[in-house]
């Protein structure tokens, strides 16, 4: 690789993390030591909350930056460089539109806030158990009026076979939002203009870096903007076809820890 890389950002689920949602901490520790020597910043860029990412990388959080909530928050060295919040009327309307959506499958919604995440009491138990894997601080509430927090994002599930129709319907109904597929049954609803690409742009502006100095890994449509922003974009073999089409390189499946292996080669 002839480009001088100064920032490496990676999506988490389906990209950096293995099939069980884990990573090899000893390998990452060694990589980050080499990154430090070469003045390369490592960035976790995810739809997960900042709290979830901070917990996941608890041993490394002072050596890296975080793009959480699909670009809704950017944190570096303990400082918040950017954050985006919905007006309460907006997330209430989003809630109603999700329920009205002809492809909706019930009350499978989560409201991701600055301090905690929230689900309504009618939310199915299996969805609560599922979503706690990504948002461990979930609070069950009686109604949306009980939220005393600033909400960044609404997450919901649709049947996998109708995910694109459900996404398109929401985007057509609510012009101020951007509904984007994050997994094969999951959609994140964020404010229009908020995405991982814009978040990386703000981080690069803070650091004085150009897109050519950025390398990113991603697998799903919520990674599209950061893949097109970066000078180098890499997708694992399990990525959606739309992401592989815009990638500069396709590497092995995420279950083979291919992102870690690539980063090791980058600084070998």
TrEMBL record:
<protein>
    <submittedName>
        <fullName>Hydrolase</fullName>
        <ecNumber>3.1.3.-</ecNumber>
    </submittedName>
</protein>
<dbReference type="GO" id="GO:0016791">
    <property type="term" value="F:phosphatase activity"/>
</dbReference>
<dbReference type="InterPro" id="IPR023214">
    <property type="entry name" value="HAD_sf"/>
</dbReference>
<dbReference type="InterPro" id="IPR036412">
    <property type="entry name" value="HAD-like_sf"/>
</dbReference>
<dbReference type="GO" id="GO:0000287">
    <property type="term" value="F:magnesium ion binding"/>
</dbReference>
<dbReference type="GO" id="GO:0005829">
    <property type="term" value="C:cytosol"/>
</dbReference>
<dbReference type="InterPro" id="IPR006379">
    <property type="entry name" value="HAD-SF_hydro_IIB"/>
</dbReference>
<dbReference type="InterPro" id="IPR000150">
    <property type="entry name" value="Cof"/>
</dbReference>
<keyword id="KW-0378">Hydrolase</keyword>
<dbReference type="Pfam" id="PF08282">
    <property type="entry name" value="Hydrolase_3"/>
</dbReference>
């Amino acid at each position: 690789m002839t480009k001088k890389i100064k920032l490496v950002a990676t999506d988490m689920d389906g990209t950096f993390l293995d099939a069980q949602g884990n990573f090899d901490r000893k390998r990452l520790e060694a990589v980050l030591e080499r990154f430090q020597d070469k003045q390369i910043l490592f960035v976790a860029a995810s739809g997960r909350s900042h709290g979830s990412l901070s917990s996941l990388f608890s041993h490394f959080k002072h050596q890296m930056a975080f793009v959480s909530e699909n670009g809704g928050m950017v944190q570096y060295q303990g400082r918040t460089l950017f954050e985006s919040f919905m007006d309460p009327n907006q997330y209430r309307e989003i809630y109603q539109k999700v329920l009205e959506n002809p492809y909706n499958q019930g009350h499978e919604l989560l409201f991701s806030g600055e301090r905690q995440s929230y689900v309504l009491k009618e939310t199915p138990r299996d969805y609560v158990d599922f979503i706690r894997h990504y948002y461990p601080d979930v609070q069950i509430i009686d109604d949306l009026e009980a939220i005393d927090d600033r909400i960044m994002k609404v997450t919901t599930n649709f049947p996998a076979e109708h995910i694109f129709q459900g996404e398109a319907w929401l985007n057509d109904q609510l012009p101020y939002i951007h509904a984007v597929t994050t997994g094969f049954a999951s959609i994140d609803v964020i404010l229009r203009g908020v995405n991982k690409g814009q978040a990386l742009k703000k981080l690069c502006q803070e650091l004085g870096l150009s897109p050519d100095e950025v390398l990113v890994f991603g697998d799903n449509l919520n990674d599209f903007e950061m893949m097109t922003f970066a000078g180098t974009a890499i997708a694992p073999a399990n990525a959606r076809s739309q992401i592989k089409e815009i990638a500069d390189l396709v590497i092995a499946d995420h279950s083979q820890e291919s992102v870690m292996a690539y980063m090791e080669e980058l600084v070998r």
